[in-house]
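Q: Given only this backbone (219 positions), what sequence would you predict?
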């Protein structure tokens, strides 16, 4: 039987872990479906005449800067890097599947609740290929909470025992947070609440799936 430190791809398909893998993939499918409909619902509200923007202490005083190279291309490359990094560490796959799936599901729930208008001057994705891909994955819609800020923070928690990746992801979370504020694509509460939401989701996943967490944090 594989120990937590010798866990390989093959171990994911043995009976002990196969149901965990299937559960993670199933949750991911549910997450993408929930995100799709929640995004459509939120977008329909945001474009209504009755949806008005609200004042924001930071956005009211910050200049509007087009930082799409960071917000769009940067986010897509960060996603690709994270996928490759998790695949390079097989013992993290089962937990990461579930924590990201729960992240998507919970965020879909939140963006379905309270709807406020788009802040004036918001920088939208451009006409390029990466911008189209970014929009296709619904990465632009939904305010609370900021996925740009929360997902890197979540990945920092996943790779916490690795100092280099921990600090890299924490720095990425800060860079993305500042960028979406300067581009006015998020309200400040979306950004500042994101790390707390990510940590809460991480802890929920840890409690629900302790065996996968044990693989993530081998002694």
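A: Predicted residues:
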């Amino acid at each position: 039987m594989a120990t937590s430190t010798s866990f390989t791809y093959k171990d994911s398909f043995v009976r002990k872990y196969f149901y965990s893998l299937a559960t993670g993939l199933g949750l991911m499918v549910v997450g993408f479906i929930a995100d799709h409909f929640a995004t459509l619902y939120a977008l329909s509200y945001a474009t209504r005449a009755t949806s008005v923007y609200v004042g924001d202490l930071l956005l009211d005083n910050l200049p509007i800067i087009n930082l799409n190279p960071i917000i769009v291309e940067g986010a897509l490359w960060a996603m690709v890097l994270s996928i490759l990094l998790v695949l390079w560490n097989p013992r993290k796959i089962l937990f990461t599947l579930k924590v990201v799936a729960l992240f998507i599901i919970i965020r879909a729930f939140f963006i379905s609740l309270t709807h406020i208008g788009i802040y004036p001057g918001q920088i939208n994705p451009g006409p390029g290929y990466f911008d189209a891909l970014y929009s296709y994955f619904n990465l632009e819609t939904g305010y609370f909470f900021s996925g740009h800020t929360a997902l890197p923070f979540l990945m920092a928690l996943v790779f916490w025992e690795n100092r280099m990746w921990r600090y890299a992801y924490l720095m990425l979370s800060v860079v993305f947070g500042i960028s979406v504020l300067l581009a006015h694509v998020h309200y400040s509460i979306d950004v500042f609440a994101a790390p707390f939401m990510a940590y809460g989701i991480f802890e929920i996943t840890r409690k629900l799936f302790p065996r996968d967490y044990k693989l993530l944090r081998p002694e």
